């Protein structure tokens, strides 16, 4: 497979000073590609070598992987393909670029297990991918109960899947700083986002949104990622969508579906302001909140079974 740019091939700062995270965001080599999970790539290689390729199976696997889903959407929305409208659905994107285009994406993708030097004790990438896919699935499920659904279900899924992609970017371009941030966050019992702000001046939500923008991803998906750690409870987009991601994130962390590098104890999400906001803005607002709580818990259980069967 074609290699990702090695760390020493990324252009140095023209001033000779150490590059900042903002320099990397402007470096084409640094933002060219992000790695994927080995298990997902292996399964996709097997599926695409099958004479009877099932597009729905391929799309389901792609939807489990942050890097692969991003690469497929980036290609489908590129100038080369020039779609008449932004494509924000993985299934549609694969149809649009065709299996030949998809195979080229697959061949140019490397595994995060072989390209990342982050210690397992700092962040286990399998657990991280499980967490990201879990948030994506639950975000889509939560959105399905909203009184007012402004986006297609796949859009809610992708913004959930990509909510922590800024962490992958940071680990890829600044692994030493990543290690420092996450080890220090664990030591001081702070959230990674808080420690990122202290050390870098930005959090992974901001980094992730900037990275997605560089890939040509529509702002409707980027902005909720940017603000998913914002403190304000707002009913206007994109903060409303960011708030939904935050609730999905809290629920997935609380029920321990994967890990995101957050060592802060998670309080009961059903007692949070985010959950209260959701009750008031969902179609179940008039119903007993306990009924919706049971529904969400059942959804998390189903999502856990699905994700763990695919990400191995």
Verbal overview:
This protein is an all-alpha fold. The protein has 2 domains: 33-112, no CATH class; 118-310, Hypothetical protein af1432 (Orthogonal Bundle), CATH 1.10.3210.10. Helices cover 59% and strands 0% of the residues. It contains 16 helices and no strands. It has helices at residues 21-25, 38-49, 55-62, 66-76, 90-107, 112-115, 125-143, 153-161, 165-173, 175-188, 192-200, 204-214, 219-226, 239-254, 273-281, 289-310. Mean pLDDT is 87; it is low at 1-12.
Briefly summarize what is shown.
59% of the residues lie in helices and 0% in strands. It has 16 helices and no strands.
Top keywords for this entry?
0% strand, Hypothetical protein af1432, 312 residues, disordered N terminus, 59% helix, globular, 2 domains, mainly alpha
């Amino acid at each position: 497979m074609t290699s990702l740019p090695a760390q020493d091939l990324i252009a140095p700062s023209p001033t000779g000073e150490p590059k900042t995270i903002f320099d990397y965001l402007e470096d084409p080599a640094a933002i060219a590609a992000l790695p994927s999970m080995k298990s997902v790539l292996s399964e996709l290689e097997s599926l695409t070598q099958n004479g009877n390729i099932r597009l729905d199976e391929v799309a389901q696997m792609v939807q489990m992987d942050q890097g692969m889903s991003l690469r497929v959407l980036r290609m489908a929305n590129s100038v080369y393909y020039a779609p008449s409208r932004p494509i924000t659905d993985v299934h549609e994107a694969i149809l649009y670029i065709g299996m030949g285009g998809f195979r080229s994406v697959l061949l140019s993708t490397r595994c995060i297990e072989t390209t990342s030097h982050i210690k397992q004790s700092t962040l286990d990438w399998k657990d991280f991918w499980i967490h990201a896919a879990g948030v994506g699935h639950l975000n889509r499920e939560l959105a399905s109960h909203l009184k007012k659904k402004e986006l297609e279900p796949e859009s809610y899924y992708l913004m959930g899947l990509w909510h922590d992609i800024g962490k992958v970017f940071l680990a890829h371009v600044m692994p030493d700083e990543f290690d420092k941030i996450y080890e220090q966050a664990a030591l001081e019992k702070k959230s990674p986002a808080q420690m990122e702000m202290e050390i870098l001046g930005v959090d992974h939500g901001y980094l992730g949104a900037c990275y997605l923008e560089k890939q040509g991803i529509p702002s409707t998906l980027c902005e909720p990622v940017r603000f998913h750690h914002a403190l304000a409870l707002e009913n206007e987009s994109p903060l409303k969508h960011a708030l939904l991601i935050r609730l999905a994130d809290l629920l997935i962390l609380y029920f321990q579906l994967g890990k995101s590098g957050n060592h802060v104890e998670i309080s009961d999400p059903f007692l949070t302001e985010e959950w209260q906001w959701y009750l008031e803005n969902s179609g179940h607002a008039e119903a007993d909140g306990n009924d919706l709580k049971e529904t969400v818990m059942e959804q998390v259980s189903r999502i856990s079974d699905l994700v763990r069967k695919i990400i191995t």
